[in-house]
Q: What sequence folds into this?
């Protein structure tokens, strides 16, 4: 591959990210990219002068002098884990961990076993700037292939996708919770589970919508309700595609006011305060 092919074939977002890092700190990118961006800035400042042309030529020569790092392969690797990682996430606690996906094999991106200990730039991956290929793959697997499946690339808004990446990738999608936060999560899930068991025992023949298997949803809603109030929200609307009974059941548990409402409905009576 010719020196400038590394630039012309690179993904636009990847180059923009590198350039922003270069402007903040030139040493944050490798020497080849430093040389290229220096020539680029010189060309802009020199308005096409001979010195600018010489700078660009020098940049191209420097890029051609050494074998380029597998820029495209690394970018495609990161993108593929973001897109397909959820397919091999370990979501079934009773089943074995998925062995992998053929489209996530390093050979699909031009890498071999000898490349695994090679230090590469991680491109748009927010978890780290540089790492060995082996470390990068491990970080990607920890972020997208553990017990939480993440599927978000269908979101069209780039800023929203980036917002998610900046919160998942630096922590490998495993945020550190304090003791109080952990107790709150456990308390919320235990409340939901106990309430479900009570309804099943007290009203075994009543038609209702269960949260069995989705208790973690209550923790998410609890956090959303608390944070929304802190941000000044005055109301919360659930998607109209969800059945009304499911909405009432879910939010009734989430805001800890559902016990009286649910029992009233299970007995077949109505109350003006339950809607």
A:
């Amino acid at each position: 591959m010719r020196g400038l092919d590394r630039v012309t074939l690179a993904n636009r977002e990847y180059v923009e990210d590198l350039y922003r890092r270069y402007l903040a700190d030139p040493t944050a990118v490798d020497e080849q990219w430093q040389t290229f961006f220096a020539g680029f800035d010189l060309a802009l400042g020199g308005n096409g002068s001979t010195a600018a042309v010489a700078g660009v030529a020098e940049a191209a020569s420097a890029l051609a002098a050494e074998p380029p790092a597998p820029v495209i392969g690394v970018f495609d690797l990161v993108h593929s884990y973001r897109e397909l990682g959820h397919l091999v996430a370990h979501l079934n606690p009773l089943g074995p961990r998925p062995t992998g996906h053929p489209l996530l094999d390093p050979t699909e991106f031009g890498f071999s076993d000898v490349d695994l200990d090679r230090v590469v730039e991680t491109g748009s991956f927010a978890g780290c700037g540089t790492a060995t290929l082996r470390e990068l793959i491990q970080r990607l697997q920890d972020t997208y292939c553990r017990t939480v499946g993440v599927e978000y690339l269908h979101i069209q808004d780039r800023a929203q996708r980036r917002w998610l990446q900046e919160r998942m990738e630096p922590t490998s999608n495993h945020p550190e919770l304090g003791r109080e936060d952990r107790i709150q999560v456990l308390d919320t899930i235990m409340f939901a589970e106990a309430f479900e068991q009570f309804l099943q025992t007290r009203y075994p023949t009543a038609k209702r919508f269960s949260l069995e298997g989705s208790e973690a949803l209550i923790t998410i809603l609890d956090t959303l309700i608390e944070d929304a109030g802190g941000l000044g929200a005055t109301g919360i609307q659930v998607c109209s595609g969800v059945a009304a009974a499911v909405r009432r059941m879910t939010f009734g548990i989430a805001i800890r006011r559902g016990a009286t409402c649910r029992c009233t409905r299970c007995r077949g009576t109505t109350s003006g305060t339950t809607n």
Remarks:
- Residues 179-266 form one domain.
- Residues 43 and 53 are 7 Å apart (CA to CA).
